[in-house]
Specification:
By secondary structure, the protein is α/β, with parallel strands linked by helices. 42% of the residues lie in helices and 18% in strands. It folds into two domains: 10-246, Aspartate Aminotransferase, domain 2 (3-Layer(aba) Sandwich); 250-336, Alpha-Beta Complex (Aspartate Aminotransferase, domain 1), CATH 3.90.1150. It has helices at residues 14-21, 34-47, 58-69, 83-86, 91-96, 112-118, 148-160, 172-179, 183-189, 213-225, 234-246, 251-266, 292-300, 324-336; strands at 2-3, 51-55, 74-79, 99-103, 128-135, 164-169, 192-196, 207-211, 271-274, 281-286, 304-305, 307-308, 313-317. The strands form three sheets. It has a seven-stranded mixed sheet, with helices on both faces. Strand 9 (271-274) and strand 10 (281-286) form a beta hairpin. The chain is globular and about 60 Å long. The chain starts with a strand and ends with a helix. Bound molecules: pyridoxal-5'-phosphate. Pyridoxal-5'-phosphate binds next to helix 3.
Length: 337
């Protein structure tokens, strides 16, 4: 099967596995796993932030960030397609007791003016606006990237109103590579950043939460409370170290392959529209000959897996485990549909 359902499906490469096997281990709840400590320090250093916290998933790093920034009764401002709202099981409410102010943006991106308008005045009737959360790249927005100046404008609004700013950076390296940015730019403007090692970077498991030393100290306590304190998990952290050292630049290959899939799809009558392809995600609007589900089925019969996100939208996600041969087969299959 050629699997475009998500960039989470990658398997560790032989070199990554060898690196994982050689990792020194210890008990991380005691703070004694050298590989986890090294990953946390390395990731924090890359972004110019003080400290990092290794977690089993991006859902956990996002939810820990929200828990650490807020108190029950506070409100979190985010775009309506945000992963933290759509795909984390209602955790903002159940873990943190917060309400959510949803904004309708453009392909997952919001603006400083929208954030400013969403912040409540100090009024007993209103929840306390406490945190703004951005996603870059935006998953449901088809891998859309923010312009950094838009992020800076949002940061100014958040800061001048006493709100924290969190980044769901599950695919931040896709944005950084696409826009030719420096991770340290992000470390300067965000109070906390969640990055995923298990998406395009190709590690089997893991995310890192970044922030100031006091913030991460607090988040570390909540990680234990949430059941995320792992013991000799350094082999997983080693996969992350290997991925940061070897798999960032190559994300450009995934982006180039995504453009080839876009071009093949655009030639078909049943493809009405494709969201602008910026990174490794292609979302196509299908209509006429196939519904999204029927299109998915037709590809599956040719050993190609994609996801129907809605009755009309289909998503392809490029990643480390899609070879050039597999891409060529996919392009040939699309041509014949
Ligand atoms: C995948 C993803 C996450 C984290 O997902 P986990 O499966 O919990 O690691 C968070 N945010 C976005 C935008 C994602 O795509």
């Amino acid at each position: 099967m050629i699997d475009y359902r998500s960039d989470t499906v990658t398997l560790p490469t032989p070199a990554m596995l060898a690196y994982m096997q050689a990792a020194p281990l210890g008990d991380d709840v005691f703070g004694e796993d050298p590989s986890i400590n090294a990953l946390e320090a390395k990731t924090a250093g890359l972004f110019g932030m003080e400290a990092g916290l290794f977690c089993p998933s991006g859902t956990m790093t996002n939810q820990l960030a929200i828990k650490t920034h807020t108190q029950a009764g506070d409100e979190v401002i985010c775009e309506e397609l945000s992963h933290i709202y759509q795909y984390e099981g209602g955790g903002i409410a159940s873990n943190s007791g917060c309400s959510v102010k949803l904004l309708r943006g453009s392909r997952g991106r919001i603006t400083a003016d929208q954030v400013l308008a969403a912040i409540h005045p100090d009024d007993v009737h209103k929840p306390i606006s406490k945190l703004v959360s951005l996603e870059n790249t935006c998953n449901r927005g088809g891998g859309a990237c923010y312009d950094f100046s838009a992020i800076e404008a949002i940061q100014k609004v958040a800061k001048s109103n006493g709100l924290g700013l969190h980044l769901d950076g599950a695919r931040i390296f896709n944005a950084i590579v696409h826009k030719n940015e420096d991770p340290k730019q992000y470390g300067k403007v965000f109070d906390s950043i969640s990055i995923c090692l298990s998406k395009g970077l190709g590690a089997p498991v893991g995310s890192v939460l970044l922030g100031s030393a006091p913030f991460i100290k607090k988040a570390r306590r909540w990680r234990k409370v949430f059941g995320g304190g792992m013991r000799q998990a350094g082999s997983l952290a080693a996969a992350g170290i290997y991925a940061l050292d070897n798999h960032i630049e190559r994300l450009k290959e995934d982006h180039a392959k995504a453009l080839e899939i876009r071009d093949a799809l655009l030639k078909k009558d049943f493809v009405k529209e494709i969201f602008e392809v910026e990174t490794n995600i292609v979302i196509a609007h299908i209509e006429g000959k196939y519904s999204a589900k029927e299109f998915t089925q037709a590809l599956k019969e040719k050993n190609i897996l994609v996801i129907a996100m809605t009755p009309t939208l289909v998503r392809f996600v490029l990643h480390l485990d899609i070879s050039s041969e597999q891409l060529a087969m996919t392009l040939g299959t699309i041509e014949k549909l």
